[in-house]
Amino acid sequence: MGLVLQTQRRGLEAFKPYATPAWPPEAMSQKNARFSLGLDNGSWPTALLCLGVSEGIGTCSDLKGVPIAVLGYRMGNDKRQEDFELDWDRLAKCQFATLLWPQGVRLQKVPNPENGELVRINPVQLNPLQIHQAVELLEFSSFKEWDLGNEKFTSVHLLRTGLINSYIPI
User: Fold this and answer.
1) What pTM did the predictor assign?
2) Cys-Cys link to 71, which of 48, 93, 124, 152 (CB 3.0-4.6 A)?
3) Is the model's pLDDT at 97 over the cut of 90?
4) Average pLDDT of the chain?
């Protein structure tokens, strides 16, 4: 089911109090979506790939059965959405979407688990011996269905929120 690791689930769940719906379910009606960052304003958007859906099962989840979409940057031409087997019905039911950051990116701010306030994190505060990965909450912007004759798909536009959380993969 793609590259979604259960170890990142708690990092994803920290966004629940801040999340808006990932997208209207009808945005996935074509069973073929193209995801991008940015507004649908005619400019060339940043292409994303849906890496999978985290369901929330087992001991790595406080939000049992809550599907969360995990998207990542499309790096070059080596990966296509078709390379990731997706259950489009599950994807349509995702409660919110997140962006998996590429490795090596420094954190900017994270939610404080005690009070939910955003806290700035300086890179020197991170333990350099641990591998930190980060996810960012995304916000739905718009979608548009396309019918190009030989191809039908939905273009789904998402916005970055700046709300970032880290986790340490095991």
Assistant:
1) 0.75
2) 48
3) yes
4) 77
Rounded Cα gap, residues 76 and 136, in angstroms: 21
More confident site: 89 or 1: 89
> What is the distance between the alpha carbons of residues 126 and 49, in angstroms, rounded to a whole number?
28
133-147 vs 96-100, strand pairing mode: antiparallel
The C-alpha atoms of residue 159 and residue 142 are separated, in whole angstroms, by: 10
Q: What distance in Å separates the CA atoms of residue 23 and residue 128, rounded to the nearest whole number?
A: 37
**Range 9-45 burial, b when 16+ CB lie within 10 A, else e:** bebbbbbeeebeebbeeebbebeebbbbbeeeeeeeb
Supply angle C-alpha 8, 169, 91, rounded to 5: 30
Q: Which of 152, 164, 123, 155 has its CA nearest to residue 44?
A: 155
- What lies within 8 Å, CB to CB, of 112 at 6+ separation is 118, 119
pLDDT for 43 beyond 60: yes
Percentage of residues of the chain with pLDDT beyond 90: 20
